[in-house]
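Q: You know discrete backbone vocabularies at least as well as I do. I have my own habits and do not want them to colour yours. No explanation is needed for now; the record alone will do.
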Amino acid sequence: MTARPVRVCLVGPSLDILGGQAVAVQRLLARLREQPGVDVSFLAVNPRLPGPLRLLQRIKYVRTVVTSIAYVGSLLLRAWRHDVLHAFSASYWSFLLAPTPAIVIGRLFGRRVVLNYRSGEAGDHLQRHGWIAVPIMRLASVIVVPSDYLVGVFAQHGLRARTILNFIETERYAYREREPVSPVLFGNRNLEPLYGVDDLIRAFARIQGRFAAASLTLVGDGSQRPALEGLVGSLGLRNVTFVGRIPPEWMPDYYAGADIYVNASRIDNMPQSILEAYSSGTPVVTTDAGGIPFIVRNGETGLMVPAGDWTALGDAVIRLIDDPTLAVRLARTGHEECLQRYAGGPNIQQWVALYQTLAVTRS
């Protein structure tokens, strides 16, 4: 008799929420649907209400209440049908609103729960709110994080976590070597303080002072957009384009059109955008925030500078433009590492093996 597939429910944000976590959920969902040993479904933590009720989701605060009620109701109706609930997690209030109900309801129904914590803010979150977060996390069957950096953060708070690396769909990104390298810059982090887009703009001012035709394309949106647009104006910068939010399937074209990918984050874990740049052959210049040193080797797969040092960030970009041989070498090494570690196959099999182990221990 053939054993039935393990029934897994991914619990996380839909693409209605801007961010890498929503993209990661959909990537994993698509790959797991190709696996014969897994029967996977998706439950959104931000469900759209039907008909006229959707108007309530346009009202601040009311939106949070009605969306949370709909989400918890969906969990109560669906959790018992699965062997494993795989809950994606960010930090702070998001932790309480999204994965916490999945953990509690999963335990209520005797299901195994994977807490997949992905935020670079874990250290601050656990330091400030560990009194409530740690006991909830201990209810999960296993904690999985995408980097050894977070394994260390959790260990400091007495929590055991294991690593399953992020992966990207390398086949979607066309590799191209940039030689010579032009001052055509690209960034795609959300326009929020932790991603340091203001530092990137200040670094770009330094770059444009050297290369008058330099351009910077910023994909993404967020609360800081008006202030960042004002900063561009006050610095008298040219050729800065705020694209806003785009569908994930458009992203490869932006990497393809750029010659240098720049990341200025102040707090981070394992940004998939760097892996996407590797896959595209776009040389990487980044800060060393959080877990980034675990995926970027300075001078080998990219150039890395201290977080918050926009002067060093700008100088690193200028260095790549002045030394195209270095840029090509970094891009080649980054691409090779991406294919070896982040192309998806082994990473997906680790998830499947984990689900199967959890399902056996539940039965």
Remarks:
- The mean pLDDT is 93.
- The first strand starts at residue 6 and ends at 12.
- The domain at 6-167+344-362 is CATH 3.40.50.2000 (Rossmann fold).
- The radius of gyration is 21 Å.
